[in-house]
Write a structure and sequence with these properties.
Helix 2 runs parallel beside helix 4, helix 3 packs across helix 5 and helix 5 packs across helix 6. A hairpin with a 6-residue loop joins strand 1 and strand 2. With about 150 residues, the chain is mostly helical. It has one domain. The protein starts with a strand and ends with a helix. The longest helix has 23 residues. It is built from seven helices and two strands, in the order E-E-H-H-H-H-H-H-H.
Length: about 150
């Protein structure tokens, strides 16, 4: 069954070819369960692992996708993937070999999110850089004692 033409190279894409191997089927299943935005972000992130001379194998892409989706809730990891792709795409960098850069971005995103959530709860105004983890922990202990 011919599905459509590739929007990039205009070659025909056969549905049978897309689901030919088990990893490809499973990867399509993972992507189909995500929202359009989250799926596009994940595909963009997976593209950072592809070398200039070789395509990313379906089995490798599936493994990476499962690892990434297990790191944190989809909202957080999605934002971290988006930032990672924005920071690294088009800079001629070597392909990624692990998720360390994403984990660092995810950590920064999580700190920013928790700082902002605290500020909204307590009515503080957040200006500049987020507080350190130690300061956040001290504040959380103070709040725990006041509740």
């Amino acid at each position: 069954m011919q599905m459509t033409r590739c929007p990039v190279c205009h070659a025909r894409i056969g549905l049978e070819a897309l689901v030919q191997d088990e990893a490809g089927r499973e990867l399509l299943g993972v992507l189909s369960r995500l929202s359009m935005d989250a799926g596009s972000t994940l595909v963009g992130y997976l593209g950072l692992f592809r070398s200039a001379s070789r395509d990313l194998a379906n089995a490798k892409a599936l493994k990476l996708a499962k690892e990434v989706l297990a790191l944190a809730p989809l909202e957080l990891v999605g934002e971290a993937m988006r930032k990672t792709v924005d920071n690294l795409q088009g800079h001629g960098n070597r392909p990624l070999t692990n998720h360390n850069y994403l984990k660092k971005v995810l950590e920064d995103t999580t700190v920013n999110t928790s700082t902002t959530a605290h500020a909204v709860r307590s009515g503080e105004i957040v200006i500049g850089l987020p507080r350190s983890k130690t300061a956040q922990a001290v504040q959380a202990l103070k709040e725990f004692g006041n509740e």
